[in-house]
Write a structure and sequence with these properties.
Oligomer: single chain
Strand order of the largest sheet: 8-7-6-4-9-10
Helix content: 25-40%
Length: 456
């Protein structure tokens, strides 16, 4: 018999546990009474995300959601994901590290009335005045009473809604968060913001790579390199924070996909190492995520390193250059990134790409590129990562990551019978040419690489 906190598990998670055990909601949570040194909740103020960066007024977003509710015959919807609620209302905050969120629950009714349950200390009078009478503000713990007061059919997303919501509603309807897909379709302003953010971020990363090339092997460690990259990014306009803790792994640490250096593991970069740096930043106009793998030292990389690096690069270029018909999913594209690794009996055990938000989460659904999970068709305006890799346990890791924007306005093939989509590469940072075996590249791949490098 398993007890659970109904505020911390979704109904979908509870149902999964219930397949193999007896489950029972437990309130209050016994952990709360044991956690004597619990960090205090963040109390910073919520901020408006200006139309200059958001591109679409919150009123129009709410109207779109209300129209959907009316079409489906729902009285309202509970937006339980803070990613969706912050996008919907064009607000941002600092409640959690690296993702600019105000933690809140939002209910949108079919008549366009909006109820927000949040720590009211974070909501200024100016912000409340901005939203006027359409938005009603409540304390966070008022959400249960608000749900109990609803008599009509209320939509909620089983993937993000706490299971207590299902229990509180008189007529719950399980469905998909109506903001999920809309949020992933970046408008023209968000698309241009992403281009601008990546240009500045590329300047910071390129300056870091140039600096890194001047440091003698054996004199620099992972944590110092991480701090230096952050310093370069902080010099860029509109920088707010990292988009996730930097992964900086040298040698065998590069083979650990989600490695994070600390005082105990911190390693000095040695002559002949591969150094994998996966990092990103939050700018007011966009979110970045980029990985580069570089060779440390003045000598020549081994034939094995160049072979593996070039196979990963060929997969990266295959995704970047892919043209595909409307309706294609990320799962269908995934094999393009792996083909040249497969031909050598190699592979990698993570997805090829994930969706990315607009000054929001660096990991955003519902799209991505992977073998199994991403079955939502790619559409124009979506931003997704392109990050094939290869990892030799105990030796080294390689990952090459750019963010790409799905476009539907690219030139079509002569005589084409179906409208084809493609990608625009957003990330601007050089690849380490010392690690490329150019004899393995086709003329088309060399042309893409030269055009990319020259366009930085």
């Amino acid at each position: 018999r398993i007890g659970y906190n109904p505020w911390l598990l979704t109904n979908r998670q509870v149902e999964r546990f219930a397949q193999s055990a007896t489950v029972q909601a437990v309130t209050p949570d016994p952990i709360d009474g044991l956690w004597s040194q619990r960090p205090p909740a963040v109390k910073t103020q919520a901020q408006l995300h200006p139309l200059t960066y958001a591109g679409k007024p919150w009123q129009e977003k709410v109207a779109d959601v209300s129209s959907y509710l009316q079409q489906q015959g729902y009285a309202g919807v509970v937006i339980s994901s803070p990613l969706s609620s912050n996008w919907l209302l064009n607000i941002r905050g600092q409640d959690i590290p690296h993702t600019p969120l105000v933690l809140c629950y939002v209910m949108v009714l079919a008549d366009q009335q909006v109820h927000v349950c949040v720590d009211l200390a974070k909501i200024s009078d100016i912000l409340q005045a901005h939203f006027g009478d359409t938005v009603h503000w409540h304390a966070m713990d008022a959400i249960t009473m608000l749900l109990q007061a609803q008599q009509g059919r209320i939509l909620l997303d089983a993937a993000t809604a706490p299971s207590v919501f299902m229990q509180a509603l008189a007529q719950p309807v399980v469905g998909e968060d109506p903001c999920l897909l809309a949020k992933s379709l970046k408008n023209v302003t968000e698309q241009q913001g992403a281009r601008n953010a990546h240009k500045r971020d590329g300047q910071a990363l390129t300056a870091f790579l140039r600096w890194l090339d001047t440091v003698p092997p054996g004199t620099l460690d992972e944590l110092t390199a991480t701090a230096k990259l952050l310093a370069f990014r902080k010099q860029q306009p509109l920088f707010q924070d990292l988009s996730f803790p930097t992964i900086a792994g040298s040698g065998a640490h590069g083979a650990i996909v989600h490695y994070r250096a600390d005082a105990a593991s911190n390693r000095v970069l040695q002559d002949g190492d591969l150094f994998l740096v996966d990092s990103g930043a939050q700018y007011l106009d966009g979110t970045t995520d980029v990985t580069r793998t570089v060779y440390i030292g003045r000598g020549e990389p081994s034939a094995e390193l160049k072979n593996r690096f070039t196979r990963v690069l060929k997969g990266h270029i295959a995704i970047a250059c892919a043209r595909f018909p409307t309706g294609t999913t990320g799962a269908q594209l995934d094999a393009l990134a792996r083909y040249w690794l497969w031909q050598a009996g190699l592979d990698y055990d993570h997805g090829t790409g994930h969706g990315v938000g607009s000054y929001l989460s660096v990991h955003e659904g519902p799209i991505g590129i992977s073998k199994r999970y991403h079955t939502v068709p790619l559409q124009a305006g979506m931003i997704v990562s392109n990050e094939p890799g290869y990892y030799k346990a105990g030796a080294y890791g390689i990952r090459l990551e750019n963010l790409v924007l799905v476009r539907d306005d690219l030139p079509q093939f002569e005589g084409t019978e179906r409208h084809m989509l493609g990608f625009e590469t957003l990330t601007r940072a050089p690849f380490d040419q010392k690690l490329i075996d150019f004899t393995m590249l086709t003329k088309e791949e060399i042309n893409w690489l030269q055009e990319y490098q020259q366009g930085l």
